[in-house]
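Sample entry (289 residues):
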Amino acid sequence: MDQCCGQAPYGLAQRSVLCCNSTLYKDREDGDECSEIGIPYNPAKGTMCCSQLHGSPGQHCCGTELYQPHSEICCDGRRHRREEHRHCCGIGVYNVNDPQMKCCGGTLYNLTSLGKSGPDALCCGSIVQKELNQVCCSSEDTELLYSNKRGYQCCGHMYYNISLWSCCAGKLSPVQQPGEHLDEMTTECTFLSVNNLNKIHLCNKIKIGTIQSVSPHSIVFNNVLEIHGTQATVEALPSPYMLQTPNHCIFPKLTPGKTYIFDEAQVFSDFNRDSLQSIYFIMSKCFHS
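Predicted structure, serialized as tokens:
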């Protein structure tokens, strides 16, 4: 007995036992394995999808069901028929080239029913901005919707009174003497969402890379790819790639080690939060074969 499975001892060469997630199962058959959620099963006899065992071995899972990757698309455990330009939005699916469909943070909207058109519809997190007098303020992890107020601006996801506070790189500081040097403190600092870029901006040259270091005057990126959606090309740029930031206060707080989409003037928040998915989204949105 030279191994532990939770509080139970067992032998490495012991037959008919299997340790799954610190639980020791006895009287198991040779060939049994642990599923992703720690349930023992025999892959030669069936396919385990979450807690559901299917009698057909060697299959692919979508949630608790089997699915066919060549003819179906799996969206958060829900199966849909695969079609060109179809992408997941939460558990739903939509055509990314349909101007009347908008995916905001995993929530799918039909803009026709909202009385809006594609170019006018902007996302704020999982919400579509329905009114022109609304303002979306975004930090790296939070997006909040506010009613537009005169004399207020975004600082990350916070909406602040510019006569009382100053903002730099997503951080608020109280103004020592209200009204003094006001022009220096009114630069807005918030993430723009890739999902809200118009097609001309998105499909022109845009970059994606991992931040190595941030200083008051520049941002250093590694592993930078330049994506040209219209031409369906991806080019690797020499590392390190340096983005000059003459006014670093307008850039939100950025985290070294994380990957961001950016151009020469702005670093964007990415609702996909996955580099390969972001590149695939841009290509599908911009390139027409």
